[in-house]
Amino acid sequence: MDDARAESDPYFSRTASREEIGARIDPVVWGDVVGPLSQRDLDQYRQNGFVVLPPLFEPSEIAELSEQAEKLATRRSAVPALEQIEEPDSDRVRSVFRPHKDNPAFAALASDSRLIERARQILGSDVYLHQFRINYKPAFAGREFSWHSDFETWHVEDGMPRMRALSVVVMLDPNTTDNGPLFVIPESHRHYVRCAGETPENHYATSLRKQEYGVPSPTALAELASRSGIATVTGAPGAVLLFDCNLMHASPSNLSHRPRTNAFLVFNSTENQLVEPFGGRQPRPDFLSEQRPGL
Ligand code: 6CS
Ligand code: FE
Predict the structure, then answer these.
(1) Are the C-beta atoms of 29 and 45 separated by less than 8 Å?
(2) Which ligand is nearest to the CA of 143?
């Protein structure tokens, strides 16, 4: 490892042609904030890097959010095109960022205490919304997401200093083994894959459709997966997945006859505010990383 580099940035990545698996130096559960998660939930989260909670939302709440999500998926001229991401091979909507900006149902979800209290409990501090998106996977048409650690991108491209953030996924449809569910590598959050290659300018313009940098090699993925395999995350509508920002995850295309729409809310600790991107490029736009201090 490049020791001098690591001293100034323990999570440097995409600086060399060689990839490397390093260690996480941050806690997973930061502790000291009391909340609704049980000790068992916290232990599972700490050990595996994720935990699936049974539905926290009523069917009527999920029905309303699903209806609103459908509305947001139709292209709206008032919304910057960049916030509505299309599939790599068609003009179908793949993701809508910032659904809370002009939609009361998603605005309410963004400040829902059921989510915030749990995020606070894991991160051991107050939290704020770092990124909010809806990922759509229509029947027969929703495409895959490559293997990646979100943190690797957020660190290099957005300037998130430490691993003190998490994703809260609210399932708006049943997530089943055949409709493009999330795949995770349990325990991978304890390692850090320094990816090879350099980040191209304005990488986000292509990476949100199909990510190619910040994607570990098959060798690194095999090494991580050989320890504890790959888990498929399934759940009923309203179920909530909490997963660590550095958990290796991916998802296959939806080849089934049923859609899979999920809301992804990323909470960051208020003690982990963004700084300048560690990869040396311009910060990405606000819709990918909210509350960027005036840099
Ligand atoms: O670049 C990002 O921030 C996003 N990309 C992926 C594939 N996952 C997390 C995040 O939404
Ligand atoms: Fe991701």
Answers:
(1) yes
(2) 1
Domains observed in the chain: 23-28+45-288 (2.60.120.620)
Instruction: Please count the other Cβ atoms lying within 10 Å of the Cβ belonging to residue 76.
Output: 14
**Residue entry with tokens 């009391």:** 34
Q: Model-level pTM?
A: 0.95
In angstroms, rounded to a whole number, what is the distance separating the alpha carbons of residues 114 and 253? 30
**Residue 51 structure tokens:** 């935990």
CA distance 292 to 284: 10
Rounded to whole angstroms, the Cα distance separating 165 from 246 reads: 9
85 lines ligand 1 (CB under 6 A): no
pLDDT digits (tens, 9 = 90+) for 126-150: 999 999 999 999 999 999 999 999 9
Whose atoms come closest to the Cα of 210: which ligand? Answer: 1
Could you tell me the two tokens for 132? Answer: 């909010």
Cβ 188 vs Cβ 224: under 8 Å? yes
Q: 254 vs 93, 118, 194, 259, CA distance in Å?
A: 14, 30, 29, 8
Tens of pLDDT, residue by residue over 2-34, are 666 777 899 999 998 899 999 999 999 998 889
Q: Which of 208, 246, 268 to mutate to test the pocket of ligand 1 (most atoms within 8 A of CB)?
A: 208
Nearest to 136 by CA among 63, 52, 69: 69
Handedness of CA 33, 35, 265, 246 (dihedral sign): positive
- In the chain, the amino acid numbered 177 is T
